[in-house]
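cron nightly-structures :: item 1 of 1
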Amino acid sequence: MIRLAVCGDEARWQMVSARLRGGSINCSLNAADLHPPPGTYDALLLVTPKLQQVGLIERALADGKHVLLVSPTELPPAELESFATSAKQAGVQFAVVNPDRYLPSRQLVRQQLDAGKLGRPGLIRMYRWEPTPASSSNTLPSPLLLDLDLAIWLMGPSPNSVFATETPRATDGTESGRTIQVHLGFPDGPMALLSYSSALPPGDDYRSLSVMGSAGAAYADDHQNMQLIYRGQHPQALRAEEGIRPLVNLTQDFVDALQTQRDLSPSLVEWHRVRTIGQAVEQSLISRQTISMEGA
């Protein structure tokens, strides 16, 4: 039985623990915990780790504990490399993961691709529109990094060209959000088009994924998952959510990997690839030119 230490909503993690096979959530930490008792857990799992949790990660690796970082967009690549080195020296696993890969809808699309039912993917179209304004800096929004990873994961090979454009931001000092369009060109013609915006008014977000292949297409669209609710006056539309299933899926995959001793080190290589492509997006936004990824 793999005992996991986690941070966050304890009730939510209890629901995850109840659905695990071969693992359990044995230790729930708060933000101030930097050194949980080593005998209480076998592996540490952190969702969206913060810079202030670097000490916690370093201590876990020093104590010979496996570590999984979910959506590590706030940690610099050099820090992740340092963790990987420490894990290798301690003889334990260190991995990073994009939680969007574990959405049931996205996993179903990947299964259809792997089974050859869609043929060769030719176009991937993704939307992510959010109400929360992103940082006004030129740093790429974290959700867009996750979308880049998802697009490459579904397409297979790395893109050989990147072009990005952004809607001009307000000049009056107000924060109106960002709207960014990204085009990824892949060898022999396939492409991915990503649309990210943090300019929605307060309320729900919206996400959509379309994959067009040579033999079929697959779609996962929040618009199609809206359910009409009649409660008097005007009907309301509520989205059918995927719930805690993504968190259960990625936690179970981590537990399975530890039990079967599956090597998780390629995950860091894949994440560095995404960060490199993210840097190309930033360069394209500044230069307004296509960035070649040949040899990257």
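cron nightly-structures :: done
The CA atoms of residues 68 and 95 lie 5 Å apart.
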